[in-house]
Design goal:
single chain, mainly alpha, 3 helices, 79 residues
Length: 79
């Protein structure tokens, strides 16, 4: 019975190794390599959000935006 548990444990470890490869499954994988990369990515995300809000405004101007969208656009424009 103990041998069965040992074999089962080895199989589980091998399957996990195959699925996750050599990555460390317990640490968070970093998306950014440097502070500049992180800053540029955050800046690009802000620009995309501002563009989507400005597109939403369309032809009628600020009246097309909800109160929540207006506040968010104001926050983003201050950064």
């Amino acid at each position: 019975m103990e041998a069965l548990f040992i074999v089962l444990g080895i199989v589980i470890v091998l399957l996990a190794y195959r699925k996750f490869g050599r990555k460390n499954i317990f640490t968070k994988e970093e998306k950014y390599y440097t502070i500049d990369d992180q800053y540029n990515a955050e800046r690009r995300n802000r620009e995309i959000e501002i563009d989507s809000l400005l597109t939403k405004m369309g032809k009628n101007g600020v009246n097309d935006l909800s109160e929540k969208d207006r506040k968010r656009l104001e926050e983003l424009s201050k950064k």
